[in-house]
Automatic annotation (TrEMBL):
Pfam family, one: rhaM
InterPro entries associated with the record: Dimeric_a/b-barrel (IPR011008), Rham/fucose_mutarotase (IPR008000)
Protein name per its UniProtKB record: L-rhamnose mutarotase
Residues making up the signal peptide according to the UniProt record: none
Amino acid sequence: MTSHTPARFCFELQIKPELLDEYIARHTPVWPEMLAEIAAAGRRNYSLFLAEGGRLVGYYETDDDVAAQAYLAQSEVAARWEAEMGKFFVDLAGRPDQAATPLTEIFNLHDQLAAAGDAPTEEGTAS
C-alpha cells in the first residue's frame, strides 16, 4: 500500500505589537464561514503560532497549494476576512494570505525516517 504525503507549507508575518490582543481575539474563534472556506480550499492541519514580539508563524498541509491559493483568492468570504486582517500586520503589501513570507523546510522527521527505511506506520510502529 502506498501512502500520499501532502505538501507542507509554513509562513511568517509580523503583527503590530499594539494590536496583538485584538488579533488573538479575532481568532478565538475564526468566523465559521472562513473555517469552511479554508477546508474547502483543501488546506488541512492549519495552525498559527505566535512568538514574542508579534512574530506569527503559520503551518498547513495541502495536496495542491496552487489550487488552494486560487480558491481562496476567488472567495468572497476570504476576501472579507483578509481585508479585516490586513490592518494587523507590519509592512504587508497585499492580502495577508497571499503576501506572507514563505519559510523553507529544511528538516522533517517522517521524511528522513522514511528515507532511512524506518518510518513509523499509522499504528506507530516502524515499517
